[in-house]
């Protein structure tokens, strides 16, 4: 072998001495010699050939070589990377030689005009797995993440893992738009083949290296590839899918701050689709194992929960890192996917999942939405809560259980709280001095005032109905209190303050009268909520007489009925009263006292005497749950008749609220306003066909009535070309040409 060593040394010196113009005739002979060495079975000769090739690879040539190919060298160096020699030292030496050889091929070809050849799939399918195979030997994976490291020369030469990683980074750094996918796809094949998604530490490490090594504008290519692979593996075990999603999270965390291209909606759409698939698998396993609670099934269900949590975490992290204009679009997109009553076909299909599956999907999507809205600061509340977003969010379909209602309220808090006051209001309590909280607030803008005029009733209604639910727990009451307090801080002018007081008094009536047969804990909880809120509100508007009345009621309660205060009722062991009917008025907040106190400070208190009644929506009539329609039923006729023959039966159910309205004459005006509002709302939201049919019926009715009132008669013309005479009562009108009477209804009107 000494002759070979001498010959290769001579070749190397000739190679280094050649000028770039005269190197081409010599290269073919040289590469033929290197190939002979690599094919030999002697490790020393293989290393010798590799070293000579690396020296050649570092020489820059002026002109490209159109006939030279490196297919053999790619195959041979890749095989050397997988050396399994029985001697560990020899094995490491050959592997290092193989990695250095691959590095030489990459350097030689990427600087060549024919560099596209190295990026072909048949080459990448050998190069990338060879590098990953050696990178798996890294002992401390966590230390390998982040931007490229710079180990010393000695470490590179001695450690195949470090050398392979640096080669992998260099390869990815040279990748361009057209060949990025060819470099990434073999990574998935390697991870699948070696089952490295569960556990997925190495997979996460690989993709962090990829994301930090490629050019930032190509990040969305990698994300698209991960999403595509998730689709391919959608039938795999939950832990494998969770591993892929966690890799996606890490990739998104790096790409979200840079260019993510057109993949924003695609990321969310794919993740939401897999969320539905995961819930489907979970419920399918539960149904198949009904009656036989096996350990494997429960374990698989918990694995599916891992997948779902990983999806939610990814959605939330990605969404919260987007700029505000994109985040608002994503909020609308996710809300559009939530299955609620009356939504369009864009929501996730849950028809085959049943009620339990639909509820699971609703909870998962709302949890995702909660993470996306975290930290979102809109300039106006209208931008944060546009009608297409607010209407489904406050839908009765999302009030079916306490967890759903909690998520909806927390999402509202994220969007309403623009001055970060929520942390100061955490927990429901009687706040002795609100000024100690140092609450931040700005003057209410015109846009916010307009929003409350249009949508305030929706917010009040949601809070009102949320308080009447039997399955409320302490957290529900805490969130309801925070909702009222944030509305007061961010959106309350004098008119809104009066509405909020009416709402609070109505909630107090709910607890006292108990038409809904609520448990005693819920009734006391509502009373405590009203006390905590009115205490907060009275200090915020700083009307001394109002503060005095509220403080007096709270002091009386603390002595005689402490279970009406949040500090007592929400303790673990609280003695509840048997009934609330025997309590004195001193324990309740009285409308007349509040009206007196506010009236003296310039507030318009006329509306305080009108009991609050939540608005009725069309969705209530379609909803399966008990709604406000069951309490107050209002039938609205567009044109109630004056004629006894055509009188419309316009009735109301006889309930406590209805009787209360009938006794109070001042409530009549409010009723008329409510009826007019319902008519307007019906024309805005009802289907066109329904409105057209109803208007046609009313038009016919009006036509008949006008004919009766005016004694209108239409005399037929004597001939087709004649005229038609109209008489109304005793008045005689001028003749009208026949062609103008083609639409007699129109002429009559």
Characterization of the model:
There is one protein chain. This protein is an all-alpha fold. The chain has helices spanning 2-17, 24-39, 43-57, 71-81, 88-110, 121-135, 153-158, 160-173, 180-193, 201-213, 219-232, 238-255, 263-288, 295-320, 324-337, 354-373, 381-384, 387-393, 402-416, 446-467, 474-491, 494-513, 520-541, 544-560, 566-569, 591-599, 618-622, 656-663, 667-685, 688-710, 744-748; strands spanning 712-714, 723-724, 726-728, 731-732, 736-737. The strands form 2 sheets. It has a 3-stranded antiparallel beta sheet with strand order 1-3-4. It has a two-stranded antiparallel ribbon with strand order 2-5.
Q: How confident is the prediction overall: mean pLDDT?
A: 81
Strand order of the largest sheet: 1-3-4
Termini separation (Å)?
115 Å
Question: How many strands, what sense, and barrel or not for the largest sheet?
Answer: 3 strands, antiparallel
Work out the strand percent: under 5%
The rounded Rg comes to 38 Å
Number of helices: 31
**Overall shape:** elongated
Residue share in helix: 55-70%
The number of E-state strands comes to 5
Structural class: mainly alpha
- Ranges where pLDDT stays below 50 over 5 or more residues in a row are 139-145, 624-653, 711-749
Pfam families: EFR3_ARM
Protein name: Protein EFR3 homolog A
Keywords: Cell membrane, Lipoprotein, Membrane, Palmitate
Membrane topology: Lipid-anchor
């Amino acid at each position: 072998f000494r002759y070979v060593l001498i010959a290769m040394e001579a070749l190397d010196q000739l190679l280094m001495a050649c000028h770039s113009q005269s190197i081409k005739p010599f290269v073919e002979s040289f590469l033929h010699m290197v190939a002979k060495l690599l094919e030999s079975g002697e490790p020393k000769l293989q290393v010798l050939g590799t070293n000579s090739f690396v020296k050649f690879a570092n020489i820059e040539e002026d002109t490209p070589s159109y006939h030279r190919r490196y297919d053999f060298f790619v195959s041979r160096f890749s095989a050397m990377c997988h050396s399994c020699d029985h001697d560990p030292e020899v094995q490491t030496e050959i592997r290092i030689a193989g990695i250095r050889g691959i590095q030489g091929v990459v350097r030689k070809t990427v600087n060549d005009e024919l560099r596209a050849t190295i990026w072909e799939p048949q080459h990448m399918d050998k190069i990338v797995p060879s590098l990953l195979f050696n990178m798996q030997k890294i002992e401390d994976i966590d230390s390998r993440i982040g931007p490229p490291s710079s180990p010393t020369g000695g470490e590179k030469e001695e450690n195949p893992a470090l050398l392979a990683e640096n080669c992998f980074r260099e390869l990815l750094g040279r990748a361009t738009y057209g060949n990025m996918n060819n470099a990434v796809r073999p990574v998935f094949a390697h991870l699948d083949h070696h089952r490295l998604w569960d556990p997925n530490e190495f997979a996460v490490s690989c993709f962090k290296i990829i994301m930090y090594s490629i050019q930032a504008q190509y990040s969305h290519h990698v994300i698209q590839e991960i999403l595509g692979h998730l689709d391919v593996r959608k039938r795999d075990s939950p832990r494998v899918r969770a591993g892929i999603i966690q890799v996606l999270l890490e990739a998104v965390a790096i790409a979200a701050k840079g260019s993510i291209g057109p993949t924003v909606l695609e990321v969310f759409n794919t993740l939401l689709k897999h969320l539905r698939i995961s819930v489907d698998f979970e419920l399918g396993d539960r149904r198949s194992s009904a009656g036989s609670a096996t350990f494997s099934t429960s374990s698989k269900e918990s694995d599916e929960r891992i997948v779902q949590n990983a999806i939610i975490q990814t959605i939330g992290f990605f969404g919260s890192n987007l700029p505000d204009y994109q985040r608002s679009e994503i909020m609308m997109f996710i809300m559009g996917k939530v299955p609620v009553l009356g939504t369009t076909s864009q929501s996730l299909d849950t028809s085959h999942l049943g009620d339990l599956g639909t509820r699971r999907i609703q909870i998962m999507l709302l949890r995702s939405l909660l993470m996306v809205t975290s930290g979102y600061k809109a300039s106006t509340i209208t931008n944060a809560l546009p009608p297409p977003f607010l209407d489904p969010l406050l839908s009765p379909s999302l009030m079916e259980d306490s967890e759903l209602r909690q998520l909806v309220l927390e999402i509202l808090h994220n969007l309403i709280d623009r001055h970060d006051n929520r942390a100061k209001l955490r927990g429901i309590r009687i706040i002795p001095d609100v000024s100690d909280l140092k609450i931040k607030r700005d003057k209410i803008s015109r846009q916010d005032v307009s929003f409350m005029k249009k949508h305030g009733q929706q917010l009040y209604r949601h809070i009102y109905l949320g308080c009447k639910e039997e399955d409320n727990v302490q957290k529900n009451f805490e969130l309801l209190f925070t909702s009222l307090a944030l509305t007061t801080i961010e959106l309350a002018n004098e008119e809104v303050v009066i509405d909020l007081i009416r709402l609070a008094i109505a909630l107090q009536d709910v607890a006292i009268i108990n038409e809904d047969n609520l448990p005693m804990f819920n009734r006391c909880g509502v009373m405590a909520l009203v006390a905590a809120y009115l205490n907060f509100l009275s200090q915020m508007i700083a009307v001394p007489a109002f503060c005095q009345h509220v403080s007096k009621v709270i002091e009386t309660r603390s002595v005689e009925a402490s279970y009406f205060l949040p500090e007592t009722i929400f303790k673990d062991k609280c003695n509840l009263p048997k009934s609330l009917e025997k309590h004195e008025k001193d324990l309740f907040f009285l409308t007349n006292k509040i009206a007196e106190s506010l009236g003296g400070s310039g507030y318009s208190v006329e509306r305080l005497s009108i009991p609050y009644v939540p608005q009725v929506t069309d969705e209530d009539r379609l909803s399966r749950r008990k709604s406000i329609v069951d309490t107050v039923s209002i039938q609205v006729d567009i044109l109630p008749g004056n004629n006894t023959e055509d009188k419309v039966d316009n009735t109301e159910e006889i309930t406590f609220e209805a009787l209360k309205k009938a006794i109070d004459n001042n409530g009549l005006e409010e009723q008329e306003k409510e009826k007019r509002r319902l008519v307007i709302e019906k024309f805005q939201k009802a289907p066109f066909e329904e409105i057209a049919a109803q208007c046609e019926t009313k038009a016919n009715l009006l036509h008949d009535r006008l004919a009766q009132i005016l004694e209108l008669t239409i005399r037929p013309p004597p001939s087709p070309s004649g005229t038609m005479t109209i008489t109304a009562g005793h008045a005689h009108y001028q003749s009208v040409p026949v062609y103008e009477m083609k639409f007699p209804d129109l002429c009559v009107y």
